[in-house]
Amino acid sequence: MANCIEASQRRLGALREVQAAALPGKSLVVYEPACGLVTDVVPCEDGHAQERSLFKALLRTAQAGDLWIADRNFCTREFLAELDSHGAFFVLREHQGLPCELLSPLGMEHRLATGHVAEQWVRFVDANSHVHRGRRLRLKLKEATRDGETLLDILTNVPRQMASTACVSGLYRKRWPLETAFKHIEAYFHSEINTLGYSKAALFGFCLALVAYNVLAVVLAALRGVYGQEKIDQEVSLYSIAHEIATTYSGMMIAIPEPEWSVFSTMSTPELAKVLVDLAQHVRLEAFRKSRTRARKTRSHPKRLSKKGHVSTAKLLKSRKAQATAP
Fold this sequence. Notes:
Layout: E1 2-4, E2 21-23, E3 26-32, E4 37-44, H1 55-59, E5 67-70, H2 77-85, E6 89-93, E7 101-102, E8 110-111, E9 115-125, E10 131-141, E11 151-156, H3 165-173, H4 175-178, H5 180-189, H6 199-227, H7 229-235, H8 238-255, H9 269-280, E12 310-312, H10 313-325
Parallel strand pairs: 2-12, 5-6
Antiparallel strand pairs: 1-3, 3-4, 6-11, 7-9, 8-9, 9-10, 10-11
Helix pairs in contact: 5-6, 5-8, 6-7, 6-9
């Protein structure tokens, strides 16, 4: 997933004469849905940088057997070829700019809960003239996506014996809820602090929020191990747990000095998991129950076009530094 840090305040001298919004940076985040953890992040100081300029750093983390699910911005010949060469699998929405050759017509449509899907074989050739084969799935949705689209073309190199057409289309459809992780990180951990004008500071703050999010994910995993996934996901408020951690931490560190926590650093992963599960059995879930909300009526809002653009904070600072050092 890609995340562009929101515009910061103009506290820096290089930003005070600029009317456009100042973007302190962006990042690519790798999210592991099986365990609910952020497993990697590729930060970039230039808020104007294209996502594709960060692909090389992202591909260094790819390993054989991985399954990468992403939107069409990641559907480039280089990205797909590198994953395939690493022995990794991909499920990505097709980009119109991908030079892809159709090897067969669309097969018989299969009925899904969300619509219909049919598949065909395709191939593409990378920059080194290596041929890569895969499947192209055409998914016709009963209900349009948030962008108003009802037709999705999905590319995958997952063999049919490993995952059926319906399974692959279901995996891609599950990608949409994963974007709510960014909303949780911003709402509960203040990952985008608009007073951090310097790019390095803004990215550091964002990465700290990712670490805090992983801590919350571990807490939730322990609770699910005791009370079940359905109960925790439907009844427990993430905001309440995050608020409890934030408000209790200072007093807890006074009551229990830092050296007392060193015992956890020597524990193995299974030992720590057992301790967390034991502690989870004493949690009063009613203290963290979600508030009941009424269903809101959908309202159409007119689109507002911004009259001002945005600028990259890193580029402005680099330009000012170059002017200051010029003879």
